[in-house]
Amino acid sequence: MILTPDELARAAPGTETAVTVGVFDGVHRGHLYLLGRLRERARSLGLASGVVTLHPAPLQVLRPEKPIAYLCSLEERIELLRGAGVDFVAPVTFTSELAQLSARDFVQLLVDELQVRFMLEGPDHALGRRREGNVAVLAELGRGMGYQLEVLEALTEGEQVVSSTAIRSALAEGEMRRVAERLGRPFSLRGPVVEGARRGKSIGFPTANIAVGADRALPPFGVYVTWAYLGEARYKSVTNIGRRPTFDKGERTIEVYLLDYQGDDFYGRDLRIDLLERLRRERRFASAEELRAQIQRDVAAAEAVLQEG
Fold first, then answer.
1. Which of 25, 126, 177, 210 has the fewest CB atoms found within 10 Å of its own CB?
2. Cα(259)–Cα(266) distance, integer angstroms
3. What SS3 state is found at 165?
4. Catalytic residue set
């Protein structure tokens, strides 16, 4: 068999289920709208509700020359999906071998391993080799395999569909408020605090450098108003995303200055930041003193934004 059923079997709740299948990058408001409908239909039918989430995204496997920038890591995606109230989440590794599986064979695995009796998808959904399993095909397969397919129209705002693609576009423009509106929450980055060059400390603004995956979507280089989370504690913060052109124009870094944090014992700990607003683009300063003065202005501007709530 091309796809081992182990990933599905590990997530199976041991009862008949209602599922939806997709990538669900970002777990945005459009996804939450679909998941809300899934939970409703599952309750009415006496089924367990679940999500089969594919990673990496099929397009990344089928067209590797076009890398995908993810709105959240797989770990964060699973957490968000579980937080949306479904009964189970089944992450499935998408491979080139899986891409060759027919729609019938893929759906048969779902039916066999998850006891699928109801499936909910968007109108443009398709699965299986060459995307042959569109909603018409899935509905026909369901009649023979014992499940019902329902198609839910995508969530729209104005004339625009709330989608991961639209959110990535807004993120690339640094429109953090628009990103938050579409996500239903602020855009966030999370990773372990790693050792940096300690230049921030040398000019009076010690920063925490967080490591995020190279495949994560990022806003444009610049300075951002952020909330920072260490464990259960939340701190006002200012974050610079860029290459530190004043010093060495080196590797891309994400440097977080926590306004009201005392101490420097956060190395190795996980730090999450919510990006609320872009203050300015990243630029080179003539001296460390000039940079220090600008950071002071950035901190004052961030305080004003954070004071608003």
1. 177
2. 14
3. helix
4. 255
